[in-house]
Write the structure tokens for this entry.
Amino acid sequence: MLTQTIDEQIPDRAIPTTPACQFCQTPLTHTLVDLGMSPLCESFVSAEQLDRAEVFYPLHVRVCQNCLLVQLVAYVSPEHIFTEYAYFSSYAETWLQHCQVYTAMAIERFHLHQHSQVIELASNDGYLLQYFIERQIPALGIEPATNIAQVAIAKGIPTINEFFGRECALKLVGQGTSADLIVANNVLAHVPDLNDFVAGIAILLKPQGVMTGEFQHLMRLMAANQFDTIYHEHFCYHTFTTISKIFAAHGLKLFDVEELPTHGGSLRIYAAHQDDTSHPIGDRAIDLLHRERLAGFTAIDRYTNFEEQVRETKRKLLDFLIAIKRSGKTIVGYGAPGKGNTLLNYCGIRTDFLDYTVDRNPYKHGKFLPGTHIPIYPVSKISETKPDYVLILPWNFKEEIIAQMSEIRTWGGQFVVPIPEVTVY
């Protein structure tokens, strides 16, 4: 469960002294960044749990010297993280618009119709599949979080409540279900056994089917200093080069790629079976592989100079907050995302800096952020207390949030975005 305490502690997984790469099993001896100890970023704390101990795990990100997969050791099993989950995709309006545009594109590009089958892996609350269903295209979600799967089912979206991998794929194929389109948005980072997951995709995909997946691009993460997107729920961070190797190992080719602005800079990959001649490898895929090579992402040295950049960002943010508090100004947070919890715990920001934070998701109201114990209120709290500054923690939605909260300007309030540098709007 998400709100584990010392009374119901999540069992530690056995971690060897030198862990191995989850893809190629090479010993992991190189560090991308070490963010210290942190609780699970979605393990919100109830009022009754405030005086109890919390479980913290290392946020030590390593890079494989062989395949260059950047990864976090799975100290906690995905079953403990995702069986009940607090992130509901439907609360982000910008993301819903993104999904509507994607649906229209996919239907036209892949000629989907009422006899096609769309399957989404980690389908959350049906935020995406609802748009396929509106177009009378059969859709099925596979979602491991029980509480979120129930929401999708209640909305009329067929959903299987389990983790996806070889076993799940074989079961579905055995029942006569395979996919013309598999969608895997923001899930490849959450998979601690990539070989099992990608092998499942290869099994479930029809001979001329297509898989698309979206994930944060590691090249953009490092360039824009987005270290706060590192947390225990993300087991891997991908370049196009490395994810291409992983798919190829399971008989799949990445024949196209798009670079998207979502989540600070993401990739949308397009995969097909290697022997599918109807989907030849395109110029965008070839070009991105070339640009990653030119940027140094095919050599280990590129990955080992990121940590000092992260430390300097922490110093600058704390300098800003200290100056604000010493001047007698008030500052609160907006949002309770996973990235916010990484930032706050790494920087040691608690209620001595942030009075509270707000969130649109009622699931989080009345709870406290893990580790920092900053209280979470409905968004209306901001208009009640009229703070001088609002720190936007989900900075990837800053335009949407600034538009929604424009009323703070009536009392002279200002917005602050912490990444890549502290910026006041």
Remarks:
- The first strand starts at residue 30 and ends at 38.
- Confidence is low (pLDDT under 50) at residues 1-11.
- The chain has 13 helices and 17 strands.
- The first helix runs from residue 78 to 82.
